[in-house]
Specification:
Elements (H helix, E strand, L loop, with lengths): L7 E10 L2 E7 L4 E5 L6 H20 L3 H7 L9 E9 L3 H20 L6 H7 L6 H5 L1 E9 L6 E6 L3 E4 L4 E4 L11 H7 L19 H6 L3 E2 L2 H4 L6 H10 L9 E2 L1 H9 L2 E4 L7 E4 L1 H5 L11 H9 L3 H18 L4 E10 L2 E13 L5 E5 L5 H13 L5 E5 L7 H14 L4 E5 L11 H4 L2 E6 L5 E5 L4 H10 L3 H4 L6 E5 L2 H11 L15 E5 L6 H10 L4 E5 L26 H10 L2 E3 L14 H8 L1 H8 L6 H8 L4 H13 L6
Parallel strand pairs: 3-17, 3-18, 11-16, 16-17, 20-21, 20-22, 22-23
Antiparallel strand pairs: 1-2, 1-4, 4-5, 5-6, 6-7, 7-8, 9-10, 12-14, 13-14, 14-15, 18-19
Helix pairs in contact: 1-2, 1-10, 3-4, 3-9, 12-13, 13-14, 13-15, 19-24, 22-23, 23-24
Length: about 650
């Protein structure tokens, strides 16, 4: 059954799909947090996964209407052809056993033919291990659309040994490794010493099929009764049981597409939840745990199904209640209401509620829909986080809740990663794990390359460097850099304050503001810290520039270890020439000389004094205030600042208009 099968997603890839000219994103087990600036393609990942699920469902059912309705126009910039790939591994024993059951049932079905009385003998004579996992248990689900084709949709399961066309029922061997997927079935059975192999000759063409052919060549008869097999072969009995199909089924077919469809149902993509309450759903659908709920079923439907279900469902309802309390500190329940919608016509309504203490005593059930968007989102998260799904994809979860709740959610996501795979796309620094070096492996940053491809960045360095980077990411403003188009590293808070105030009005001078350009200004707290911050930015693929004090530009200064630092040996020792060399490396300054004589004339405060000595004297003597903010608020943005901002935008490849 679904809750006992565990598929793992190993890769998401696309070509000309939505905003992706080209994407290749490997995924690890456990928790992966996908970050990046706006427009990098984070939300497209969930749509890619939904398309793959829709494609294999269409191949299994033959109903192409949903996928055609939703994805016919999903080509990049109107492209008439596109491809998505979802790598998957069936590395749990329950998954590989299911594939093995399907393989054995396929072989028995193929060999039976005119020898129905021999079916049980065929089954017993087969080796215990057909090695079907070698052919099918790890590969890529490939969904392609091409308007130039008579049938525009193609759905394939590609492994190192076989390319299975799930729509047309064709199998093409891949690779040169011998085995049940590439040898003919008859030859392979003979190699296994099967005494009944000779009987397969009577089946004519089927005797030359490979195991891959049998598994990929469209649906096969599932029901032993429909095949006239008595007694029922053990392999078909096991396949019935594994798929949850009643043994008294008199007619039915099953194929590889059906098995993959069932396994992909264990991949839950949560970014378009249904409504809160439930109306217009027949009572028997709510009380019968076997009746399927649609993927976008309202929250009330999901909760009521669990509350009224069997022991396992009731336990999951209690888990959802506990998760909601852990996230919010409040309680959660669901109550049934019946409303009259016409003469003699009634509808069941399931209303999620937040039981709340009343001022007059007792408790009152407040409908969740009236309790605020934050609690609604927390309830949805509580339900989806307690699903027994082996793969959970969350697109921008907790976008409408407080930072406190987001941090609590991250704790629950990390707990869940111990037994299931979870992928989260987010714009929130509070959902980025930063407890230690191991958490850096969980962070992925997407960015758009100049040619249109989507670049994938992961931290990769020595253990000591990862440890240093993880300590930097402990600060929320550093984690904000993961979502920026670029970062401007400055020496201290005074520079950050002044630049923030002055550049907020940059649009009046025909320049973008840092906010509109998605630029974050980060103080490094001392020139000696530029190099390690820059190394982190480079490791995560974040474009950056540096605004340094004059003394830092010396040949032996703290910037000498900066990635891409210029070779100053070949540059004259004049400050002007050295400043030009540093500017070519993205390091700029407001200083007019080194001033490394202890006078502090090379620091930002000296620039303030040059701009307006009177105002700086007033601000600097005003006690404990934010001097950068106060000075910039009193003085118009100097031309030097606007020129510096324009130069920085050019350094990091951002438009200056």
């Amino acid at each position: 059954m679904l809750g006992s099968t565990f598929v793992r997603i190993t890769r998401l890839a696309a070509h000309d799909f939505l905003s992706y000219e080209r994407l290749d994103l490997p995924l690890d087990p456990g928790l992966t947090v996908v970050t990046g600036p706006n427009g990098a393609g984070k939300t497209g990942l969930s749509r890619l996964l939904r398309l793959a699920k829709s494609g294999v469902a269409a191949a299994a059912t033959g109903d192409w209407t949903p996928i055609a309705r939703d994805y016919t126009q999903a080509g990049r910039y109107g492209a008439q052809a596109y491809t998505v790939r979802v790598g998957a591994a069936l590395d749990d024993p329950a998954d590989t056993a299911l594939v093995e059951h399907l393989a054995r049932a396929a072989v028995v079905t193929a060999l039976t033919g005119a020898h129905a009385e021999q079916a049980a003998g065929f089954d017993q004579a087969l080796p215990e291990d057909l090695r079907a996992r070698d052919v099918l248990a790890e590969g890529e689900l490939v969904v392609a659309f091409d308007t130039a084709m008579r049938h525009p949709w193609s759905v394939r399961w590609q492994t190192p040994h076989a390319d299975v066309d799930l729509v047309r029922g064709r199998v093409t061997p891949r690779g040169a490794a011998p085995g049940p997927g590439t040898a003919t079935l008859l030859d392979w059975l003979r190699e296994q010493g099967d005494p009944l192999a000779a009987l397969a000759v009577a089946d004519g063409q089927r005797s030359t099929a490979t195991l891959g052919d049998l598994l990929g060549a469209g649906p096969m008869e599932l029901s032993a009764r429909a095949l006239g097999l008595d007694p029922e072969p053990r392999s078909i009995h096991r396949l019935h049981r594994a798929l949850g199909v009643p043994l008294d089924t008199t007619r039915g077919t099953i194929g590889l597409a059906d098995v993959l469809d069932m396994l992909m149902r264990g991949v839950v993509v949560s970014n378009e939840p249904g409504g809160v309450d439930l109306t217009g759903v027949p009572l028997d659908q709510m009380t019968d745990p076997r009746a399927p709920l649609p993927a976008d079923a309202p929250l009330g439907a999901r909760l009521l199904r669990r509350k009224n279900g069997d022991v396992a469902l009731r336990a999951s309802f209690a888990q959802a209640q506990a998760m909601f309390t852990a996230l919010t500190g409040a309680d959660l329940d669901v109550v049934e209401q019946t409303i009259e919608v016409g003469p003699g016509q009634h509808e069941l309504t399931a209303v999620p509620v937040v039981p709340t203490a009343a001022p007059s005593g007792g408790r009152v059930d407040i409908p969740l829909r009236l309790s605020g968007q934050g609690l609604v989102e927390a309830a949805r998260l509580a339900v989806v986080l307690t699903e027994p799904a082996p793969v959970l994809f969350l697109d921008e979860p907790a976008a409408n809740v407080s930072a406190v709740l987001q941090r609590r959610l991250l704790t629950r996501l990390l707990d869940r990663s111990a037994w299931a795979q979870t992928v989260v796309t987010t714009h929130s620094a509070h959902l980025v794990p930063a407890r230690g070096p191991d958490d850096l492996d969980r962070i992925v940053r997407l960015s758009r390359a100049p040619g249109g491809a989507t670049d994938v960045h992961r931290a990769s360095s020595s253990r000591a460097t990862l440890d240093r980077h993880s300590r930097l990411l402990g600060a929320a403003d550093i984690r904000d850099a993961l979502f920026a188009a670029a970062v401007w590293l400055v020496e201290g808070a005074t520079e950050q304050e002044a630049l923030t105030v002055w550049l907020a009005g940059a649009d009046a001078h025909g320049l973008p503001t840092p906010e509109s350009a998605h630029v974050v200004v980060i103080p490094v707290d001392g020139d000696q810290n530029f190099a390690k911050h820059a190394d982190l930015m480079r490791n995560l693929g974040i474009p950056y520039g540096v605004l340094a004090d004059g003394p830092a530009l010396r040949e032996a200064g703290p910037l000498r270890t900066l990635p891409g630092a210029p070779n100053l040996v070949a540059v004259s020792n004049t400050f002007a020439d050295r400043a030009v060399a540093w500017a070519a490396a993205g390091v700029r300054t407001l200083a007019d000389d080194y001033h490394d004589d202890g006078s502090k004339k090379g620091e930002i405060e000296a620039f303030f004094a040059r701009v307006n000595a009177t105002e700086w004297a007033r601000v600097s003597g005003a006690g404990k205030i934010r001097k950068g903010t106060a000075f910039a608020a009193a003085v118009h943005a100097p031309p030097e600042i606007l020129a510096l901002w324009r130069a920085f935008l050019g350094d990091v490849g951002l438009p200056s208009t």
